[in-house]
């Protein structure tokens, strides 16, 4: 007993002060994707790269609108959208407080205008995307926005270009024609945002929140997940986060529960057991969809054995996105469910009024040098981290001549303590130095 007391005094307080004080997350923590509407060119690269189909692109050709949409309830925070975005319009922030009471608050949408094809007159592409491509051509020394011919070619839709190519092929290769069917089918997954909760039951739930604010029993149901969410739940009930100081306890029976916590996608074998647990819990009860799979089915949403998210079976009161949610995000979601904490995330809808031109990054640096720097940095440090290192080094190149850049880089490396990062910057600097010497030698 005395040894245990002595050890406790030596270690001190291990429990974090969150949610009463902000929680410091680790460097590189992947939280909510932050979207910059002004910087986006609606190219759709992020939607193609997203493995969970959390980002979708949809066209309304009657109104001439292209819609970009992200659903945080399906996001697995892999960072692929940030890696592939050409203008850097989407970045992952350290924000983990994403719990929401309605699915609409987990959505961010942006509408972009489309231009008409010069040949057929149909809407086909956002002007911001075309302007970005023309600006990139200008940087590469090719005819860009200043060239009337290049602009005319860019303002023709792919279907008309195919037809023109077929006509040219027919003239040059008579007697033979290969019919090709073009057109990509855009699949947009739309969630069911209808909430058909009974009015009387909703009133009872509000009363329940007032009564059990400091004495909450939580029952967890795994509906078929990978157990990643379970590991984070076990971490959140450890002494480090200590939910019992807030009156939150995990119980072994739904009969004793006030809150039902559903993890994983709703699989066919677990549909009936989940319904039994829901029916066994006395009313009023609070239902929480936990994790990306619980919110929407996650990366398994279109699997043959998956019904969808938790709300495909019964109504959900709070959604806690994450793959998996961190222990701090778990505490925050439970706090939102019990009205102990205020919901911070809200749904967003951006509409483009005027077309603004987005410039490619580092316009003052030659495209070949920029590509060499980015390619080497990504080869040494990975796609995302390498891009960040390359951007940092390219900022040095924008500040002056070879001597000024050399002084700036050496001063930065003296302060840097990570030897691996120093080695990467030195290799990038060698590429720049070799190119400058080659250019100087050619001029001489």
Automatic annotation (TrEMBL):
Signal peptide: none
InterPro entries (alphabetical): 4Fe4S_Fe-S-bd, 4Fe4S_Fe_S_CS, Complex_I_20kDa-like, NADH_UbQ_OxRdtase-like_20kDa, NADH_UQ_OxRdtase_20Kd_su
Name of one Pfam family that matches: Fer4_7
Transmembrane segments: none
UniProt keyword Nuclease present: no
Keywords: 4Fe-4S, Iron, Iron-sulfur, Lyase, Metal-binding
Domain 4Fe-4S ferredoxin-type: 31-60, 66-95
Record has Metal-binding as a keyword: yes
Cofactors: [4Fe-4S] cluster
NCBIfam families (alphabetical): PRK06411.1 (NF005012), PRK12387.1 (NF009053)
Name of the protein this chain belongs to: Formate hydrogenlyase subunit 7
Gene source species: Desulforamulus profundi
Lineage: Bacteria, Bacillati, Bacillota, Clostridia, Eubacteriales
């Amino acid at each position: 007993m005395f040894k245990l007391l002595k050890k406790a005094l030596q270690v001190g307080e291990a429990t974090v002060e969150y949610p009463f004080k902000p929680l410091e997350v680790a460097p590189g923590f992947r939280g909510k994707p932050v979207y910059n509407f002004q910087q986006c060119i609606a190219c759709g690269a992020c939607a193609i790269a997203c493995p969970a189909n959390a980002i979708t692109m949809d066209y309304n050709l009657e109104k001439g609108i292209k819609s970009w949409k992200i659903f945080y309830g399906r996001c697995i925070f892999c960072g692929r959208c940030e890696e592939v975005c050409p203008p850097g319009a989407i970045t992952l922030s350290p924000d983990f407080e994403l719990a929401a009471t309605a699915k609409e608050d987990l959505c961010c949408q942006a509408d972009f205008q489309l231009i008409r094809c010069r040949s057929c007159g149909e809407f086909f592409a956002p002007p911001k995307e075309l302007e970005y491509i023309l600006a990139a051509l200008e940087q590469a020394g090719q005819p860009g926005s200043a060239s009337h011919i290049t602009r005319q070619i860019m303002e023709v839709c792919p279907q008309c270009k195919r037809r023109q190519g077929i006509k040219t092929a027919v003239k040059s290769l008579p007697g033979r024609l290969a019919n090709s069917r073009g057109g990509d089918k855009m699949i947009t997954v739309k969630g069911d945002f209808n909430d058909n909760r009974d009015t009387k039951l909703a009133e009872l739930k509000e009363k329940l929140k007032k009564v059990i604010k400091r004495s909450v029993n939580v029952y967890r149901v795994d509906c078929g997940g990978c157990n990643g969410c379970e590991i984070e739940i076990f971490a959140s009930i450890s002494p480090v986060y200590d939910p019992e100081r807030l009156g939150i306890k995990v119980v072994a029976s739904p009969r004793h529960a006030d809150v039902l916590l559903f993890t994983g996608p709703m699989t066919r074998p677990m549909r009936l057991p989940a319904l039994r647990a829901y029916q066994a819990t006395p009313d009023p009860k609070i239902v929480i969809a936990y994790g990306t799979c619980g919110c929407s089915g996650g990366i398994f949403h279109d699997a043959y054995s998956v019904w969808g998210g938790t709300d495909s079976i019964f109504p959900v009161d709070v959604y806690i996105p994450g793959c998996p949610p961190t222990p701090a995000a778990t505490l925050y979601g439970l706090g939102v469910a019990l009205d102990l904490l205020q919901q911070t995330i809200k749904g967003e809808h951006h509409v483009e009024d005027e077309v603004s031109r987005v410039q490619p990054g580092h316009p003052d640096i030659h495209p070949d040098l920029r590509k060499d720097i980015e390619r080497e940095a990504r080869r040494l440090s990975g796609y995302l981290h390498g891009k960040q290192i390359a951007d940092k080094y390219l900022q040095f190149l924008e500040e002056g001549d070879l001597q000024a850049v050399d002084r700036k880089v050496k001063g930065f490396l003296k302060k840097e303590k990570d030897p691996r990062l120093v080695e990467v910057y030195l290799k990038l600097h060698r590429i720049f130095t070799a190119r400058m010497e080659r250019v100087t030698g050619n001029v001489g």
